Amino acid sequence: MKLIKNISILILLLVSSLSMAQVKFEAKVSKKKLGVNERLRIDFEMNKDGDNFVPPDFKDFQVVGGPNTSVSNFWSNGKRSYTKTYSYFLAPKKQGSFTIKQAQIEIDGQVYKTFPVTIKVTKAIDKPKNPNDPVYIASKNIHLVAEVSKSNPYLNEAITVIYKLYVAPTVAANIVGDKQTPQYKDFWNQNIEVKAFRPENGKYNDEDYRYVILKKVVLYPQKTGKLKLEPYVLDLNVEVPTSRYDIFGNRIVRKVPQSITSGSRTINVKPLPEQGKPADFNGAVGNFTLNVSSTKMSLDAGESLQAKVEVSGKGNLKLFELPKLSVPSSLEVYEPEHAENVRTNLGGMQGRISDIYTIVPQYKGKYPIPEVSFSYFDVNSKTYKRLTSNEIIIDVVNGPSSVTTSESSTDNSIKQTVTTNSNTFAFIKTNSDWVATNKKPFFKSNLFWSLLLLPLLLIPIAILLRNTREKRNADVVGNKRRKADRLAKKYLSEAKKALGQKEAFYIALEKAFHNYLKAKLHIETSDFNKEKIQDLLLERNVEQSVVSEFISILENCELARYTPITQVTMQNDYDKSVKTIGAIDKQIR
């Protein structure tokens, strides 16, 4: 009995030790139900160190913070406790029930995945208004305003929308990115480039503010009635001063993520008046002039001329068709070539559009090009106006005279005998003129002997390649380094593809450094700190300047997640990474 009891205790200890050695990788969320105006924290936690972490696609959420990495590694009562966590802060994009899919990690050569997590997002929740709360302070001191030049325009009349960001003097703001950009449904739209954000002083609700113009757009309504302008939504990091001070007496500033919206606007579009509308009106709205011209007034039959119908001025130039040119049937006319020279600014479209017709007369004589009429609606006078061109006479000096109908009918009554060709296949060549160019036989030629001996020469080369491959496969350490090198190059290439996407770029760059250091210094994730990396590189005879450059790039990766980064900065960090890794490869011993 005692023996059985000892065996049972031994089995129990073995099972418990095995259970302690199990790998755990799970997703934990701060809450499973939240309002659309709240934030969610999700942690991906593991009990053993892993590589190549792949987060899920947060397509239904906006990532407002993270990934933040934390490692806990300590011993208690002779037992090691290790925890590594990747944390993200998410803001829901809309209401509904959403599933955060699996994340994955590679631990000891095995891939582990978390379980999906379902989150329910409800309507916005009223939060208590604490005047000392930095989030409340930020919401009261930052405003995004859409200024509309005219809220009651006519159909196809130009209006301008200017988006301004107002910031109170007591706070500062950094733009993270556009969360929602208006699509301007039912409007023809043209963005006006804003080359730089220039702060200016202004008033908001009769209080002093600074503002910048973020976006300008010119709209032409294409429907009548009440049309809605979608809101413009921005993500910001707002720096709010707190009531605390550091040891030097400077006020401590807290960064608060904030989403602000311009709100939706309604544009009431009036239809064009029916009274006085011309029958040939085709939708032109603005102030225009009409010009019809010809490149030649006199020419010979068979020659060509170009006739141009041109409308110039200010209005919806790209949104209507030009009047057609009518010419006599004895003139051959080709499809017109359309040309536009239109620029768009805050006043709307300005410039000219034209149709250019190529005309070829067949017979001599004088041919009139009739007058052309063009109608448009003048917004200033609120009336329709008509423009009419002058008649143009084309004089064809030389050429055949026009054939009368009687002559043509007489000519058509004359019939001619058709003679057939008896030699129907005369075009086919039946005799060849081939001439032999090589009299020497292939047997025993240089090419014959080369093809015969080539397989024998390839045998020692194949043996050499096989020995080299076997030797390479036996080099376990070398293979591990080469694999890590390939992985580092892979992540550098992924970083290059992600240029312009801050989060993805710096995550890929960090992974490239991680795998590169594993290959060169045999350093594991748990030892991934700047001090140890610096000491190991200096021990391997890498120059101090190169080591400092490498450490600075690592610091940039850490800071970039919390500060606004431009495309130029990301390109510089990528170029420095490639240059620094190359320098370490040359110097490391």
Automatic annotation (TrEMBL):
Pfam families, per the entry: BatD (PF13584)
Keyword set includes Nucleotidyltransferase: no
Transmembrane segments: 447-465
Keyword Membrane: yes
Entry keyword set: Membrane, Signal, Transmembrane, Transmembrane helix
Highest taxon, organism lineage: Bacteria
Residues in the signal sequence: 1-21
Protein name: Protein BatD
Protein's organism: Winogradskyella haliclonae
Taxonomic path: Bacteria, Pseudomonadati, Bacteroidota, Flavobacteriia, Flavobacteriales
Gene that specifies this protein: batD
